[in-house]
Structures are given as C-alpha cells and as structure tokens.
Amino acid sequence: MSEAPPRPTLEEARERLRRLGYLHGTVERFVFRRALEDLSGFFVPVLAAGAIALALAETAAVASSQFRYGGSPRSVALLFLELAIVALLPAGVFAAMLLLAAARSRRPGRDAAVSALIAAIGVLAVWLAGTWRLGADRPSTALVWGVPVSLAALLAGATVRAAFLARAFTRSGRLPERPRRAILGFAAAGALSVAVVVFATHREPARPAPPLPSPRRGTVVAVGIDGLALDSRHGPGESAIARMLSAGATGWWDARRASPAEIWTDLATGVPAARHGVRALEWVRPFGLPPLRPPLATAWYFRGVGLAARAVTRAPVSAWERRSPAFWEVAGSAGLPALAVGWWASGPWDGVEVVENREVLARSAGGLDADAVAIEEFERRSAGRALAAVYLPGADILRDDPAGRRAALARLWLLLDRLIARGRRGEIALVVIAAESHPAPGARGRVVVFDGAFPAREVRVRPFDVAPSLLARAGVPAARDLAGRPASDLFPPGSLETATVDTYGDRIATTTAPPRETDREYLEKLKSLGYLQ
Amino acid sequence: MAGSRAPSPFSGGAFERYAAASRPALESALERNLPVPARSAGALREAVEYAVLTPGKRVRPFVAMAAGELVRAKPAGPLAVAVAVEYVHCASLVLDDLPSMDDAARRRGRPALHLVYGSATAELASVTLLARAFETLAREPEIPAGVRARIVEELAVAVGAAGCCGGQAADLAANPAAIDLDELEGIHARKTGALFVAAVRGGALAGRATEGALEALTLYARNLGLAFQITDDLLDREGDPGELGKDTHRDAHRANFATVLGADLCRALVAELLDTALTALAPFRRRGAVLADLARYVRERRS
C-alpha cells in the first residue's frame, strides 16, 4: 500500500490552487477580503485612507496660506506626517461610527454611497474652509492643491464605500456592490504625480531689485500709539493730546476690531492681513517645524492634546510669519538708514536697526515701562536715520488702569510736544499714527503729519496708505501692488516721491524662526501684560 | 410530479429571490422538454421523470440562466442551456449512484433510481437524458447557429473524457490513500467543475457575451465550483443525512478534499475561493448580484 502524501499547509494548498488556475492572482481583493476576515479589515483601510486624505487637505490649507510652508518641501512633508498622525483620531472615530452604521444598515447600497459622499465632501471642506479660514490671499497656485486633495477625497470615499459594503455584507448577508479598484490605483498614482510636480517645480519668487530712493532732507519719524481713544473716552490726557494733534494734517479711517499685531502690521506694510499673513498674537509650533496657525479641525490637537503632550508648543507672533516687508525694511533695502523700535512682528533685517517688540516688553514690568524703554531706545538710536519708527503700547496696556494711563499719556504728551516742535521747524517730518485694537463704536484711526509749516486739514485715508506715505516722504518710490497709495494731501506739495515701482516683493526672511526658549519668555510677558489669556 | 414545487433550499438574498422567480419557468421547461419514449419502452418514461422531476436545488440551471441575464440575453436561450445542463446533471447522478460506481442508496431524499427501476433502466434513462440535452440545445431557435454549435461543443467536452466521464474514471481508478491535492483537483475539475463552468459559459454565450465577460465568468465558475465541491465533501463528512437528502460518509473510502486537506484547511480555502469568485464578478457591478449571492449561499450551505 502506497504511503499517503503529507497534508499540505494552507500556504502550500493556496499556492497549488493558484497554479491550477484558481484564486486568480491578478484580482485585487484588499479591502473586501480583509473586511470579510475580521473587524480590523474594515477598520484599518478606512482609518488609513481617512487619515491620509484629512492630513493632505490640512497640509494643503497650510501650504496655500502660510507661505513658509508652501516654499519648503521638507516642511510640507514633515507637516503632512505630523498631521497624518493627528488625523488618526478623527479618522478612527469616523471609522468606528461607520462600523456601527454598516452593521445596522438596512439599505447598504444607499447608505454606503451616502457615507462615501460624506467622507469625500468632508475632506474637500477641510481643504477649502481651512484655506479660507487661514486667511491667505488664495493665489491661483493654491488651486493646484485641489487636484491631489480631490484625488485623496476620492480615495477616502471609495474606501469608505467598499468597507461599508463589505461590513454590511458580513453582518446582514446583503450583497455588496464591488468598487472599481483600478480607479483607486489611478487616483493614488495621480495624486502622487501631481504632488511631485507641485513640489519639484516650486521655487522661491525672485527677489525684485530694491527701489532706488531720492533721499529727502531730514528724518521721517513715525510714532505709533496704541490704545489712544481720541473719539470716546477723552480723559484729561487724551484731550490734551487731541488738541495737540488737531494742529497737524490729519488722515482718518474707521477703526475696526482686530488683534494689535494685525492692525499695526497693516499700517507697517500697506497691505491687508490676507496678504501679509499676521493675524493673531499667538501661533503654535508643531514638533520640528516652524510656527503655524492650526488648520481647520486640528485645534483640538494643536491647542489641546498636543500642548498637553508637549508635542506642540505655543509661539508668539514674530516677523517669521510676515510675508510682506514693513516700511522700515523697504527703506533699509533701498539703502536708507532706518530704525524700528518695538513694532509688532518686527525682526532682524539687513540695513535696518531693529529693536523687536519682544525685546522692549522683556525689559518692561508694565505699560509705563514699555513706553519708557521704547522711547529711550528710539531717542538713543534715531540720530542720523533717514527713517525712524517707534511703537508705544503703554496706553493700550494700561487701558484698565486710570492712574497708570494718565501717567503714560503725560509721557506721550511730552514726547509729542518735543517732536511736533521739531516737525514744525522742518527738522523732521513727524507722522503720528493713533490706532486702537479695541475701538469704541464710531471710533477712528488717525495719521497726523507735522511737516514744516504745512497747514492743518482733515482728509479720509486708508490705513494701508500710511506705509507708502512714509516711504514716499523718505524718497522711496511706492509699489503699485500695495493696497495703499501715498496720501499726498497730508504732506507739503513736492515733498513726496512720485516715482513708483511694480512691487517690493515678498519678505524673504534672512533668519530662522525664533528659538523656543525666547518664545516662552515672550508669551509669558504677553500674558502678564494682558495681551493673552 | 410535474410542476411540483420544492421548498426553497436557499435562505434569503438575491439568488433565492431569483431562483424563486425563475423556478416555475425552469420546472416547466424541464418537464416540457422531457423525451417521450415509445409506448413499448416500458418504465423508461417514468424513470426519466423520476430522475429529472424530483425536488432539487437546480443550482446549475439557475446559474446558467443568471449568467444569461447578466449579459442581457433574451430568456429563451439561457433557459435552453439551463434545461440541457440539468438533464446532463441528472443523467450523471443516475450513473453515479449505480452499484458499479458509487452504489448510493438515496438521492435527493428518495431511493436512488436504480433501486426503483433497476440498473438497466437507470442506464438507459441516463443515456436518454444526455441525448435529450444536446437535442434541446440544437433545436433552440433563439440562439444563433454558430453560438449553438459552440455551446454544444463546450457541453460535450464537459460530459466526455475531458469532463464528467474522464473525472469519474479517474476517481474510480485513484488510490484514496495516496492521492494528493493536484490529482484530486484534476478529478473534481472534470467530474463536477467542468459542468459548472459549462453552465455559466453556456448561459453567457447564449446572450452573446464578450470574451472579457466569458473570461470573468469562467474564473467565477471555476472558483465557485471548487468551493462547492470542497463544501460538498465537508458536508459528506460532517453533515446531517436528513438535511442533505442523501447518504453521508459514502466517500469515506474514496479520495475527497476533506480527507486530503482536513476540515480547517478546507474551510479556509473555501473562503478564499469564494472571495475570488466574488471578485471576478466585480466588472458586472449590480448585474452580478444574483451570482454573487450564490457564493454567499455556498459559504453558509448546510445541505
């Protein structure tokens, strides 16, 4: 009697049947087979596809609107990886809900289609709403992101549908319709190709040639005063300053409520926040990446779990995220010696002496100190500058401290009295900017010019006109792509440069983002001064 | 007996609904097309009716009809294929049960045909049914002549040396103690698989299916047929005779998948074969629902 052959293993039997023409090797059965085998076969594909699609949509939103990321493939890739990990939680919750729904579905075909639609629309919504919310000027190139995001949405939708059907089939015996797997393969390959093309072809825009100035005689001095309520409270100090300022040529605009960083960066750049990118006082910094504003649906992580787990740190506003040059930076690039003291979102710039806002506040215990430090730095360094700017936050910091505020306003009065006298003598062209981030209804922002014997007047201007006006007064041609124009009604005839240039270009940082340690100190200071809760 | 309705062997789902809806037409066609022997032929007519018009699952004819519907064929062509395939199947069962073959005592819940009418009549009934199967196909006007010839050829191959007969001969000659998976598959592929594939392909050909569709359906039929056979062997080893309607453990002395692979391996392979069969239907989307549901039935089959 012949000996019975040994019983084959599953792998051997499978292989032999495959060789005999069964278990067709070319038939892809990833989602469906896995889903039939166990619960993880349903859960894992949805989790993976959902997390990838969500992370891609969020990455696209950040890269489209926060230019530090858009210009750096490494940052985009790292951000995508971190966001993919973060997205595992919402994708997991979605997959679990889907699992329950599929097990109870009485019409799996319809319900699977609805679920797939929800997944796909959700991914697209995160991208679109995220890009919109982050406040970019949405350049046309941002639309290129639509291709990979759409493909990712398609992939997520198809996976959700296939897994839903498979799960419903295992629970109810209702027959699933089979997804076209080839489409998924093409979608993934297409998304990858487009992403490669987008990243490989992206280059930093060429820096335009600096504008050629026609230097004017005397220094242009800009004094920015935050929290000066000239239209509402009119305390004793404010009345005196209001009387003093009424003697200058005044431009005004309707005030609006926004963070001080945004308002004063509007004034410094001549473009809106959608273009310069500075909106909030506080950003977040993911592990190993530059600071960013959290994309849609990630606040729970960036402002909650991630912070608690120390995978994310807070980051205060800085010049790092500003994408448009401030007026002192344009002047410095044009070869004019310039100074900026204490301005929000200011940072090092070649040719300009900059005392950052964080430096001023670091040396201050309160509003009075802040103004004193800023004024001291300004007066010590302003000699010989063609353009000098100082930002004074005292009145704003002391808005709830009447005694302190009176003292701050008294110090302001003294400074302005001194500077206005010099302006009237024609030694300097003084431009006082009074803007408030917490305006009362009907309040106005103002720019008041004391430039020789030019008579008092009042005209309506836009806040974006301030930066080009200061530059034109210093002899620097205004850029035609700014939102504002030089306010010629506020200056003596012939004193403003009339030549223009196409653009000043983007602000391309010459330094890396500020280190975390100084970020922490700055944040503490902003909290202690009442800027942050 | 004619027109008798068996309770549905399928439980829920698209295939059950399809079978329930199609069964009257099929049973009617099976009865209508039965051969009418001469008066002097004795019990041959009764034996043929006994072989065909007994309650059965009719899986093969329904599969042929569903395949035709899947490629949007007019019903008459696939119905003719279904009748021919069922006649061939019934004929093969009669032969299978003979003492010289499996020597089975029960079939479809009743005594085997040769125990009722004798072996000689059983053999004659079987040959009569085979001949009638090809006659039915050859006379079907709804199928174009060229296609008819192709279906007849494929069915003939499924019956002959490369099909049922060859498979049965190999089965009888095999040494159950020494058989391996390859040899066992060869026996199955000819003995039962070939007719299953012919049923699906015949139904689809009657609807002038494209070669791509035929290829997908062949893949489906091969995998489903093997899964069906492995399940059959498992049920023979573990099933309830009352539920099955036939003797169990009759294959214990013959080679079968349950003995060669073991029950666990059989179940694992059945799952993968059915999965592959289902996947092969993917291109047909909704239209493949009936055939796909049959795979679910095989997975849960108890009889």
**Structural Rg of chain A:** 30 Å
List the total number of helices of chain A: 19
Helicity of chain B, as a percent range: 55-70%
Spatial shape of chain B: globular
Main beta sheet of chain B: 2 strands, antiparallel
In total, the number of strands of chain B is 2
Largest interface: A-B, 33 and 40 residues
Q: Given the helix and strand composition of chain B, which structural class is it?
A: mainly alpha
Write the topology of this structure:
The complex is a heterodimer of chains A (533) and B (303).
Chain A: H1 10-19, H2 30-37, H3 39-65, H4 67-70, H5 73-104, H6 108-133, H7 146-172, H8 181-201, E1 219-226, H9 236-245, E2 249-254, H10 260-269, H11 273-276, E3 282-286, H12 299-308, E4 312-316, H13 327-333, E5 338-341, E6 352-355, H14 357-362, H15 367-381, E7 387-392, H16 394-397, H17 402-424, E8 428-435, E9 444-450, E10 457-460, H18 466-473, E11 478-479, E12 500-501, H19 516-528
Parallel strand pairs in A: 1-7, 1-8, 2-10, 5-6, 5-7, 11-12
Antiparallel strand pairs in A: 2-9, 3-4, 8-9
Chain B: H1 13-32, H2 44-52, H3 59-70, H4 76-97, E1 106-107, E2 110-111, H5 113-117, H6 119-139, H7 145-159, H8 164-173, H9 181-206, H10 211-238, H11 241-244, H12 257-261, H13 263-280, H14 289-300
Antiparallel strand pairs in B: 1-2
Helix pairs in contact in B: 1-4, 1-14, 2-6, 3-4, 3-9, 4-6, 4-9, 7-9, 8-9, 9-10, 10-13, 13-14
Structure description:
The complex is a heterodimer of chains A (533) and B (303). Chain A is of the alpha/beta class. Helices cover 50% and strands 11% of the residues of chain A. Chain A has 19 helices and twelve strands. In chain A, α6 (108-133) packs antiparallel against α7 (146-172). Chain A is elongated, with a radius of gyration of 30 Å. Residues 25-38 and 173-180 of chain A have low confidence and may be disordered. Chain B has a two-stranded antiparallel ribbon. In chain B, β1 and β2 form a beta hairpin. In chain B, α3 (59-70) runs antiparallel to α4 (76-97), α3 (59-70) packs across α9 (181-206) and α13 (263-280) runs antiparallel to α14. Chain B has 14 helices and two strands, in the order ααααββαααααααααα. Residues 1-9 of chain B have low confidence and may be disordered. By secondary structure, chain B is mainly α. The chains are: A alpha/beta (533), B mainly alpha (303).
